[in-house]
UniProtKB/TrEMBL annotation:
Organism domain of life: Eukaryota
Molecular function via GO: nucleic acid binding
PANTHER family membership: MARINER MOS1 TRANSPOSASE-LIKE PROTEIN
Name recorded for this polypeptide: Histone-lysine N-methyltransferase SETMAR
Organism, as annotated: Rhynchophorus ferrugineus (Red palm weevil)
InterPro entries: RNaseH_sf, Transposase-MT_Hybrid
Length: 86
């Protein structure tokens, strides 16, 4: 919530079960999965360190742009009458 206020985003209500409108489903996790693809880890700590380094290396604009894309997805979801749009 702090980041939403920091970037002055307007919080919009949406269906809680819509995967089209969950930033982690369309924005964060696909890129993270590609970065981790094919890598082998010997411990949970190594995985955690890799993921933390990945997110810490991203500029603030990376997260801001991802959240800004939510508006377009929200509008498309409404246009398609809440049908899945992936």
């Amino acid at each position: 919530m702090a980041k939403i206020h920091e970037f002055a985003f307007k919080l919009l209500p949406h269906l809680p079960c819509s995967p089209d409108l969950v930033p982690t489903d369309y924005f964060l996790f696909p890129y993270l999965k590609r970065m981790l693809a094919g890598k082998k880890f010997s411990s949970n700590e190594e995985v955690i360190a890799e993921i933390e380094a990945y997110f810490e290396a991203k500029e603030k604009s990376y997260y801001k742009n991802g959240m800004e894309k939510l508006e377009g997805r929200y509008n498309l979801c409404i246009t398609l009458e809440e049908n899945y749009i992936e």
